Amino acid sequence: MLILATAKSMKLVLSTIFILLLVTCGLRASNSPKKRSIRDVDFKNFTFDWYPGKGWTVVNITTAKLLATAFIVCLNSPSISAQQSLSHEQFASDFDQMWSSLRDNYAYFDKKETNWNRVRELYRPKLDDVKSRSDFVTLLERVLDELYDNHTSLNTNLKTSPRIVPTGLDLWAEWRKGRAVITQLRSGFSAEQVGLKVGMEIISINGLPLKEAIARRLPKSLKAINGDARNWALRAVLAGTHDRPRIIAAKDQNQTVAVYKLDLPTQPTVDDYSYIPKVEWKMLPRQIGYIKINDLVSTEIVSQFDSALAGLRASRGLVLDLRDIPKGGNTDVAEPIMGRLIDRRMGYQQVVPLHEPKYVKEVSPGGDWTYKAPIVVLVNRWTGSMGEGIAIGLDGMKRATIVGTQMAGLNGGIFNMELRHTRIGIAYAGEKLNHINGTPRENFVPPVLVNLLDRRLSRFGDPIFEVGYETLNKLTA
Question: Domains in the chain and their CATH numbers?
Fold first, then answer.
């Protein structure tokens, strides 16, 4: 009876898998940027009937060859083949591909203390311990950590993977006179909700004294441990990993130490956040317009921004809030937005390729009309990548006043590579990006700098907004 039941179960499982393979193949859009949904699958030539004792039967197929083709395509597709067993030689080949590609194309080695040859010496022998793709992902994550660069990462992760900064971080801390001080909190997320405050000193993370946790997280190949590396390690420790809730001990300004439990099921966390809508707008008192952009990736943002701007056409000035764009975005979205705010073609960012001459990237006016009233742009540590590009661009074009803290400070323009055997993707900073005055984008300081540690601002629920709103009112007076 057990053997019979098992055989029937296997038939059901195999039949179900076969159908899922068909659907999976229908959903796949190989080498195409367009994502498809189940509604895109053409089921005209398929009917699926259930026969008791036989399981699922596929009938009314135009040709039996379609089944065979679908099965072969799925077996040879990236998502299936990537799960097949890989040899030590294939892992080693992918390791060497990543290491040599970054050696030749990563744009920021001149600003790093990383000894890249030492990285290979340290980590290539660890390939002996790699038995699976997951093991290999973990090894590559450790290799990339040696660059202490939040703009260089894998396109895949595990439950045990470290969160990426700033996307996976809800509190920003910096070393101040040997103390790890919280300088900013991400509004609405776990760190803020449990009661952590700007100005508190971090004492420990998950029961481990902070300095010990930092020592473990620091890159191992550094010629010298500089401030950038120590701040990177601090924020990496505070971001934690996807699989483990964080427990942070912090000292307030009265020297009282308390323990805060983060990432609880009742708290909004960075792992599952989403903004709907992606563009918000309203008219504020004194006829001041307000637009908040929460995404610079999706192309529909452009039309949503256009609609918001049309609704605020009569405003005396505009507050453009870019403080929730940790994922960055792309120029196909950012440039049309900037184009609505200028009346002639202008340079907005200097690009410094690694192997070619530098040049200035330009943007052209767009839309049927130009918004010409004064603009204030709000930024913070979660203004990342292309959000930073918009801020320095509008500043360089003298089209807006930037108000807030320093931004995420993400390095350069992103390039992508895919490893031959594991097909793991790697995004890395392949060119430097500067303000049009030649200063690095990652070092930009807003002309109206808001110090959130200033106790005079503690009476405001949103100090950056309040300073920005008052700044705009002065500009429109």
Answer: 2-81 (no CATH), 86-272 (2.30.42.10), 277-410+447-475 (3.90.226.10)
